Amino acid sequence: MSAALPLRAAALREQLETLDAMGSNVQETALLTDLRRELAEDVEELERSLVQSRVLAKAGVVTETPASLSAARARAAALRDKFVQDPRSGTLKVGKSWTTLTRDLVAAATELAKDAKVAWKAYRGVIFTGDAPAVVRSRIAGTDQNNSALTRYESKHQAFRMAFETMPSSTAEIVAVLQLASDLKTIAGEFDFAVPDDVKKFLEAVQARGAALTLLTPGVIAWLKDNDAFDSYRIVAA
Fold first, then answer.
1. Which among 47, 78, 89, 155 is most buried, taking Cβ atoms within 10 Å?
2. Between the CA atoms of 3, 9, 14 and 19, what dihedral angle is there, to the nearest 10 degrees?
């Protein structure tokens, strides 16, 4: 009986050590799960912003790459390498690397989304430079042809304007917007502007593709000022 006691004690100690190890593993697993969940939320938000940027890029709408994105990528790679060497939750939490990583991820997602919105808004002026329906109405003769064209123009213009109130989620949506711009240019070509010839040429060019500076004659400038429209136009590089 006494000889068996040390064996039983040793076996009990081994069992206790196993239970202790299991408890440590459970705790470590819980810590890693929490970190994974925390990281996943930030990564998902960043991925949404990256997808949006890629959708715009496919259509030729270029967005800026924020410095925080490059910083986040570099920090994530460094943490990954450390974790491979020592796969413990404590490895990830040493110093401020983890906190800085999550901060950079949030900043990158926010900046990407902001830059995408700015680029998308600016794209409107790239694909169509025509005037709002109310402005067109004040400059055209009230003929049946003009009224019919204006009705169609108003409908297309409203859809075109609304398209830029939200971000496109696919290339197909951008293609649809490009078609609206094309339709607006076509309809604008039907307008008969009841204005002097040089002003008519200028307004038609604005509606179609943008007017060259050579069309901005002294007579056009005077007409625009007389009609409180001069400040409505901006010179942009072609």
1. 89
2. 150
Instruction: Check whether residue 148 and residue 218 sit in a common domain.
Output: yes
Enumerate residues 6+ apart whose C-beta is below 8 A from 156: 180, 183, 184, 187
What b/e readout covers 77-102, taking b as 16+ CB neighbours within 10 angstroms? eebeeeeeeeeebeebeeeebbeebb
Contact assessment for residue 200 and residue 193, using Cβ atoms and an 8 Å cutoff = yes
- Give the span between the Cα atoms of 157 and 150, in whole angstroms: 10
Contact at 8 Å (CB) between 167 and 52?
Answer: yes
Dist CA 237 CA 151 (whole Å): 31
Query: 66-124, pLDDT tens digit by residue?
Result: 888 888 888 888 888 888 888 888 888 888 888 888 899 899 999 999 999 999 999 99
The pTM for the full model equals: 0.70
- DSSP letter for 190, please: T
- Is 196 in a helix, a strand, or coil? coil
Q: Into how many domains does the chain fold?
A: 2
Nearest Cα to Cα of residue 54 among 112, 4, 101, 98: 112
Q: Same domain, yes or no, for 171 and 135? A: yes
